[in-house]
């Protein structure tokens, strides 16, 4: 329910440049973009889980979008031709742009080089614990409703005369 006391953010504060590329290119860069933007994404997801209010995580969401934009700008600057070839292979090899087809031979090596510079070898095999720089939010007291109606008393029911009361379980 929305009341007058609900404080909505200003619509101008919600405007952010979006990542406007197609599904094949997003799917082609998803793994590497996820690796490069891991800290921002973890910060955003932790904020969403702890705060339980998306209005408080707008800045973290903007950081994730900004990181993804910067990643695809790096791709455009350094290896657009190879990346487009890989995205085109994904697009043409299956109707649902799955990564399981033979396109792994075409994958842009320059994208892999971008990530290996920022992440050490065997990065995916190591256990990672995310340590947020943001302070942990205060835990709100559980909701209590003093004017809630009293629940109905328990009634001793007799066995059903013509079978089970739960007809869908037979």
Tag the structure with descriptive keywords:
5 helices, single chain, 170 residues
Blueprint of the fold:
Blueprint: H1 11-14, H2 23-36, H3 38-51, H4 58-93, H5 109-118
Family: Belongs to the complex I NDUFA8 subunit family.
Subcellular location: Mitochondrion
Protein name: NADH dehydrogenase [ubiquinone] 1 alpha subcomplex subunit 8
Question: How would you portray this structure in words?
Answer:
The protein is mainly α and 170 residues long. It has helices at residues 11-14, 23-36, 38-51, 58-93, 109-118. Helix content is 46%, strand content 0%. Helix 2 (23-36) runs parallel beside helix 5 (109-118).
Straight-line distance between termini = 40 Å
List the total number of helices: 5
The helix content is 40-55%
Shape: extended
On the 0-100 scale, what is the average pLDDT? 81
Radius of gyration: 25 Å
Helix-strand topology string? HHHHH
Number of β-strand runs: 0
Structural class: mainly alpha
Query: Could you list the spans in which at least 5 consecutive residues all have pLDDT below 50?
Result: none
Our estimate of the beta-strand percent is under 5%
The major β-sheet equals:
none
What is this entry, summarized?
One of its GO terms (cellular component) is mitochondrion. The chain has 170 residues and is an all-alpha fold.
């Amino acid at each position: 329910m929305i009341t007058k006391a609900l404080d909505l953010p200003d619509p101008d504060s919600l405007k952010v440049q979006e990542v406007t590329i197609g599904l094949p290119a997003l799917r082609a860069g998803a793994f590497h973009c996820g690796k490069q933007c891991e800290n921002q994404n973890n910060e955003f997801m932790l904020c969403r889980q702890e705060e339980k209010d998306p209005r408080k995580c707008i800045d973290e969401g903007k950081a994730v979008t900004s990181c993804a934009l910067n990643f695809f700008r790096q791709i455009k600057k350094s290896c657009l031709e190879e990346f487009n070839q890989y995205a085109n292979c994904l697009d043409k090899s299956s109707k649902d742009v799955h990564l399981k087809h033979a396109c792994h031979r075409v994958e842009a090596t320059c994208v892999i080089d971008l990530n290996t510079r920022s992440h050490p070898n065997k990065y995916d095999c190591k256990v990672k614990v995310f340590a947020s720089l943001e302070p942990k939010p205060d835990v709100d007291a559980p909701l209590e409703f003093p004017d809630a109606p009293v629940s109905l008393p328990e009634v001793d029911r007799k066995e059903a005369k013509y079978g089970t009361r739960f007809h869908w379980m037979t």
